[in-house]
Each structure stands twice: as structure tokens, then as C-alpha cells.
Amino acid sequence: MIIPNNKRLLDCCRKNGVEVTYGRIASLKKDGSDRSRVQSTVGWNDIYVYVGDDSAKMVDELTPLEDEIVVNKTTDSVSLGTNYTQILHNMGIDTVIVTGVVTDQCVASTIRVLADQGFRVICPEDSCAAATQELHEAELRIMNVIYCTVLSTDETIQLIEEAAAQGTPAID
User: Can you tell me the distance from the alpha carbon of 84 to that of 96, in angstroms, rounded to the nearest whole number?
Assistant: First the structure.
């Protein structure tokens, strides 16, 4: 469900001139030594993906277009240890739609950091997933209103289309 929802959201953003960026866990060093502790700790988070490997590619349906930015991260948040925040500021973006996996880890960490950095954040609940539905729903309840606005993919698309019809950049 989240891949088709993300695809619909990507198509809507692209059609309506909303900038699309990607964040992915990808080590810049072949041995993974640049990963943060949380990404290199044995257990569920023991994630090692080298940026040059096929395993670092996005799923076919969500492949970035040539001019879309892909930020490689070695932490849970795409904004920590990267130039992502500076890129958003340079492009005049102040609202960010965050989707992906895992809701209670990378998605939540990214949302919290972006909110702390002054961005408005939207999280389409059905364009994210966690290890369990219980964790997913609990994290969304915690983040909603304080750190982000939780909407459905359909509600987010409607917001984008309404802003585009009015010629206003309600979503950057």
C-alpha cells in the first residue's frame, strides 16, 4: 500500500511543480565505517547499504527523476549529518512532506529534526510504515500537531492540487 501511495504522491507533486527530494540510508564508505552508531549497532538497525551497490537503489516505482535530489544519510534523520536542510533553505522550501519507512525511526527522526529547524511538516500516514501497525499508529499519534500534521495521502494530494489551482505555494 505505501509504494502505490507514494507513487501517487510523487506523480501529484511532479505534475503540480512541488519539489521532490529523497533521503536514503547509504554508506559513503565501502566498509560502512561512516555510519552512525544507531545504524551500525547489531540488531534490527544494523543497516549496511553502500551507496554504490544495487541495494541502495530506490524501488522502480519510486525512482528519482534526473533533476531530483537524493541525499545519502548515515543516521536516522535525513537532516543530521547532511546538507539537506541547507538545500531546502537554498530552494526557499518551508513545508516538507515526509514519507517512507520506518515510521517510528527514520520518518519520525526526520520529522522531529525538520520541525525543530522551523519547517512545516506533513506526514501522509498511509505513505509510511513501521514494523507493526501498533508502532506506526502510536508514533503518528505522538507526532501529530506537535511536530507535523498527519494527513492521508488523499488529503495531502487534495491540499497540493488546491494550492496549485489557486496559484499559491501552500506546499513547497
Answer: 11
